[in-house]
């Protein structure tokens, strides 16, 4: 059933919100033949993810999605069948009035942030009735039954496995980025917020017995990296070596290429929500830098996910994994945690793939949203 969708995205200070909504919009069009209009309040944040886009064009079509600048003065537009309010952004008052005036009310979905906390399944799909008569439905992505699942394109894992089985494809992709790693090097990607624990991790890798090639896309962690290197700048493609560690800066790449970068690496350090989910679909051990929240609320989310993720690991491997994540998110010393994790590398690598397969058994987020709409009408 073809429906119209308005997805509203307010960019805060990172790429997570627009990253998730852009993936969702593309998938709704490509796999479910929905008509999607994506409203973004900062198109400049959209362009790095979709380089063919133009931040100066208020309305444009990209990959089947109508991408629109969210204006301060709201225009008269037809209300969609499904209205997605992503991550607690507030809908324009004029649009809310138009929703009330619509003969058949739209399905209004508040798409929440991803969490593994126990309470999520109890709140997923619940309504909230406003005094003006409009009803909003809460929709929670998640990791198990009773949630909305995770964003995952239908052919994602098949494409990743085909890539894994083609050394030529991996080599061609990396060389396209100017990456020529030693054959026996451990390839690691690093995409994170500022972190005072980075220097200790870099020290540990530089002092390690095995060569490591660290790939760092342009982002907020670059300042900490430059301080450790003792440099003022590191241009995309530039390479620096310290001991056993080779550090290479990369350009900020489009979403599809970032997915492929994760597939190329043996270990991925990621941040926020979008890259967090994509690292899990890569089927590799990974490290999550969660977005900090007031009153340290993010630690509840972090520990809830860790408890779920490590439950099938041996106690020693679970301790190593948890210790490294805690050190990273506390900005504390990483050396002992990293060296301990290396002792359990084979188990953690096998577990990452099992986790990926387990999560792929549930409906993906776009599929769950479409089904939710069909059941609602």
From TrEMBL:
Catalyzed reactions: dTDP-beta-L-rhamnose + L-arginyl-[protein] = N(omega)-(alpha-L-rhamnosyl)-L-arginyl-[protein] + dTDP + H(+)
Signal peptide (UniProt feature, chain positions): none
Top-level taxon of the source organism: Bacteria
InterPro entries: EarP (IPR016633)
Keywords from the UniProt entry: Elongation factor, Glycosyltransferase, Protein biosynthesis, Transferase
GO molecular function, one term: protein-arginine rhamnosyltransferase activity
Similarity comment text for this entry: Belongs to the glycosyltransferase 104 family.
NCBIfam families, alphabetized: efp_Arg_rhamno
Function: Protein-arginine rhamnosyltransferase that catalyzes the transfer of a single rhamnose to elongation factor P (EF-P) on 'Lys-32', a modification required for EF-P-dependent rescue of polyproline stalled ribosomes.
Name of the protein: Protein-arginine rhamnosyltransferase
Source organism: Pseudomonas helleri
Lineage: Bacteria, Pseudomonadati, Pseudomonadota, Gammaproteobacteria, Pseudomonadales
Primary gene name: earP
């Amino acid at each position: 059933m073809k429906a119209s969708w308005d997805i509203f995205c307010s960019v805060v200070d990172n790429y997570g919100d627009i990253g998730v909504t852009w993936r969702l919009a593309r998938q709704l069009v490509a796999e479910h033949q929905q008509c999607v209009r994506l409203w973004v309040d900062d198109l400049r944040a959209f362009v790095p993810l979709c380089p063919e886009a133009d931040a100066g064009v208020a309305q444009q079509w990209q990959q089947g999605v109508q991408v629109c600048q969210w204006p301060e003065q709201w225009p008269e537009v037809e209300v969609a069948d499904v209205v997605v309010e992503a991550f607690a952004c507030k809908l324009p008052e004029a649009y809310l009035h138009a929703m009330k005036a619509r003969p058949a009310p739209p399905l209004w979905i508040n798409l929440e942030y991803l969490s593994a906390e126990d309470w999520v399944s109890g709140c997923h799909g619940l309504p909230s009735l406003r005094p003006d008569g409009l009803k909003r439905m809460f929709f929670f992505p998640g990791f198990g039954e009773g949630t909305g699942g995770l964003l995952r394109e239908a052919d994602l894992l098949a494409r990743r496995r085909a890539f894994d089985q083609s050394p030529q494809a991996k080599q061609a992709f990396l060389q396209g980025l100017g990456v020529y790693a030693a054959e026996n090097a451990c390839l690691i990607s690093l995409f994170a917020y500022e972190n005072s624990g980075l220097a200790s991790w870099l020290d540990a890798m530089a002092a390690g017995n095995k060569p490591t090639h660290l790939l760092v896309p342009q982002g907020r962690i670059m300042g900490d990296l430059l301080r450790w290197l003792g440099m003022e700048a590191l241009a995309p493609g530039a390479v620096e070596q310290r001991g056993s560690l080779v550090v290479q800066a990369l350009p900020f790449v489009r979403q599809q290429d970032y997915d492929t970068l994760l597939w190329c690496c043996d270990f991925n350090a990621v941040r926020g929500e979008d890259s967090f989910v994509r690292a899990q679909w890569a089927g590799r051990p990974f490290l999550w830098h969660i977005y900090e929240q007031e009153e340290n609320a993010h630690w509840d989310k972090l520990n809830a996910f860790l408890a779920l993720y490590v439950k099938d690991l041996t106690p020693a491997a679970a301790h190593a994994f948890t210790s490294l994540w805690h050190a990273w998110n506390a900005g504390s010393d990483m050396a002992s945690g990293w060296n301990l994790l290396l002792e359990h590398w084979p188990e953690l690598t096998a577990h990452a793939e099992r986790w990926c397969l387990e999560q792929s058994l549930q409906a993906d987020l776009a599929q769950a949203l479409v089904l939710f709409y069909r059941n609602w009408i």
